[in-house]
Amino acid sequence: MSSNILRNIQIVDPKSEFHGKQTDIFIQDGVIVSMQPGLQTSADTEVNLSGAVATTGWVDVLAHCGEPGEEWKEDFKSLSAAAHAGGFTHVAVLAGGHPKPDHAATIAAISAATAGLPIHVLPLGHATAGANGSDLAELFDMQKSGAIAFTDGDDPITDTGVIARLMEYGSGLRAPILYFPYDKKLASGGRMHEGVISTSLGLKGIPAISESAALEQILQIAGWLKVPVSIIRVSSTESVEIIRRAKSMGVEVRAAVPVYNLLFTDEDLTTFDENHKVLPPYRTEKDKLTLWQGISDGAIDAVMSNHHPEDIESKAVEFEYAAWGASSIQTVLSAMLSGGKPDLTTIASSLSEGPRKLLGLPKVSLNPGQPADITVFSPTAEWVFEPQLNFSKGVNHPLQGKTLKGMVLGTVKSGTWLANPAAKKHA
Q: pTM above 0.70?
């Protein structure tokens, strides 16, 4: 393997002895060998990163990919390019629909097809067969083939018996089941958050109780079985309060919020922009502020991209008929910096430590002897998200054409420095 030196970089990692300090990092054979200012050594690659920040590599809890079956929406190559530009070293991917990822052979094929990409693709398997919500999929076989966790994606599991069996089986496998709390029957026909804005626009709403009622049910079962539980796509004030209360009662719950729910609210839908039609929907300003508070006080563990790329035929239609989802994995940092005022430690914990906990990945730190898994970014750089800087095939970008704050400069994957092409073009 090659050797690399990252020079003059600020470390943001509370587990590192260099937290809050500027230093050089010497990497060889995939491992951090030494860290100190002004290292008197040479390497195959040296990068001066004065003014930049280094954290442990970012992990995304859930991104969708069209391949296999719908490669025109997103393939593994385009997803990995967009994820790398977004600062991620690991991405949990729910891949394809033809075939669906509910068999060991499909998971093995995904693992083989994604080897050598600039990110580590972590395959997600469906928790139930064909995501039908009733019959458990081949969890053990899929895990042996490389599945990191299990979820039915946009199809929430609401059968309490199935939820309980998945919790027991997943706990035995030490494989997280990612639950999306959403009761479709309470949100039948809904297209956005139910409230004053939906009424004024004449659109049927998705009430917050469709999430909180389902969440309460999931957490009560987890508490009864005394097993850990992972919740994705948290979007409402009520849900944050339920999670906070469950944690205080000893339930081992880990939760993630979609990044665009930290930036946008239901008021952003007044223009009927189909790119803002997402699940869970953007809710109110109060909900957004509560989500941020949840990240701050630990009720929410992670920020997720909820990346769901779509083609123009699926989005450039009337709002009522547009597909759900937004392409987001490349703009997570900028969305966080625009939606609130997170400190650097919060960014690091919600994009690295929290997602690792959610997915059951090993802990890492920026210390000598640790694997070199690093994300480097500038929190102050500004850039315009122009079409030529979009590496995803998805056309559904709410931030396309906007001036954004915060740019990823590159990552270190398996000990190799990989510069962000978007940063090069911007410079």
A: yes
